[in-house]
Amino acid sequence: MSNPVTVHLRYEIDADKLAEFREYGERWIRLVNRLGGTHHGYFLPSEGDSDEAFALFTFPSLADYEQYRIAAATDAECVEAYRFAVETKCIRRYERRFLAPVFE
């Protein structure tokens, strides 16, 4: 039996393009869920730093995550979501971490 993997993304965003980043996040929540993951949401600035956002999503295994990455590279909606972020420049940079979740 494989272990689930949760991906933690930390984004440095353009604080003046929060609406664009929100749209980007809404797209990816649906896409990750459609491609076999469970998206736990995007977390946008509220108090504190205005240019930092986070996302969390889980796949049943690292192998399932890797299959998602392969599928996302050619999926038309995923490619469009990436293009949207590039064109709007709502994301300055991001970091990806892999975590071992503990669920009840």
UniProtKB/TrEMBL annotation:
InterPro entries xrefs: Dimeric_a/b-barrel (IPR011008), NIPSNAP (IPR012577)
NIPSNAP domain segment(s): 10-102
Name by which UniProt lists this protein: NIPSNAP family containing protein
Organism encoding this protein: Agromyces aureus
